[in-house]
Amino acid sequence: MIITKIIGGLGNQIFQYAIARHMSLLHKDEFSLDISAFKEYKLQDYMLNRFNIIENIIDPANIKFHSKWPLIKDLLKMKPNEFYHYKEKYKFQYDERVLSQEGNVYLDGSWQSERYFVKIRDTILKDLTVKTPPSSRNLELLQEIQKKNSVAIHIRRQDYVNNPKTLEFHGSCSIEYYKKCIAMMCERVPDPTFFIFSDDPAWAEQNIKTGHSSVYINNNGKENGQEDLRLLSNCSHFIIANSSFSWWGAWLSTNRDKIVLVPKPWIRSKELTVKDMIPSSWVEVPSD
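The structure corresponding to this sequence follows.
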């Protein structure tokens, strides 16, 4: 049995789901989701239930954790409620050992690299289809996105700008970053239409000017992140923020010729590297 701890925003939740989904297929084993942390975590809601995922929710109350993987001779002695607590050591970096773990494993981390699940891309794409049909307004937007040379712009501001600790760790993409990316897209994409997503839509509409046809998405709100993700992932090209939500919007796109522009650096911390997080075909653009 594989258990994955689910916590954080929607983008983080999808990363945590995707690694467990892959491990379950690799080892022909069941997997479950531990969402108990949301009882205390009030910044975001659990949102994976909006998608066509395999959703086996488990109560971890009676689980006994082992911090060290038992020896082979001890594996058969492990009880059904005993799990190896595999805690991520380095955020944003691929750990080649984790996918090979068999038996009762409890995954505790962010797992933010496509290398954990890219081999089952088609499965992830299928799982992350939204259960419910789009509303009339979202359907109109979806049809407009699909018939135009759509370029998504994602801007994340609220917690990155308003929380000093979050800002110190992540940083926030500057207006100059978006100006550079817009100019690059205009050089590469004929007759683009920009679709602008943000957790601060009023700021985005006031400050992000493309000089081309632009649509500001402001009808869904934080509580309907799955709707914005569906719209975002149907765009043809992407200017993303240093956000796991917009990372997934770009990754889920099935446009083989997509251009994805990402901020560099992804985070302000000098102690961490994100080389395993950014797919090789994506283009890094200075964000300061």
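The mean pLDDT is 90.
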